[in-house]
Write a structure and sequence with these properties.
Elements (H helix, E strand, L loop, with lengths): L9 E4 L8 E8 L4 E4 L4 E6 L8 E6 L1 E3 L3 E4 L6 E2 L1 E5 L5 E5 L7
Antiparallel strand pairs: 1-2, 1-7, 2-3, 3-6, 4-5, 7-8, 9-10
Length: about 100
């Protein structure tokens, strides 16, 4: 399966408890088809204190399935699908399907 998303892409959630929230992809897990998006899908974790880390309850982002994400169109700032085209040199580039702009 081709992974159309890349790290640092601006995305919006289209399903789930945080539907409609926007964020930036921090990490992608290609084998699991999931990603971590900053500021979205936050879950509380209990952390035990160690030498340099203070213990307590922290909020950390959890994995989200790629099918629940849509890329934000750079021109209109609305959800869009990702397409592919070839430039003049034959290099494959990603484009937004709604406006046709390069991502």
């Amino acid at each position: 399966m081709i992974m159309k998303f890349k790290v640092k892409d601006k995305v919006i959630l289209i399903a789930g408890k945080d539907k409609g929230k926007e964020g930036e992809i921090v990490k992608i897990f290609r084998n699991e088809n999931t990603a971590i998006v900053s500021g979205v899908n936050l879950q509380k974790q209990h952390v035990k204190a160690s030498n340099n880390i203070k213990g307590g309850i922290i909020e950390a982002p959890a994995k989200i399935n790629i099918s629940n994400l849509a890329i934000l169109d750079p021109k209109t700032n609305k959800p869009s699908k990702i397409g592919f085209e070839f430039d003049k040199k034959g290099k494959k580039i990603r484009i937004s399907k709604k406006s046709g702009t390069k991502i």
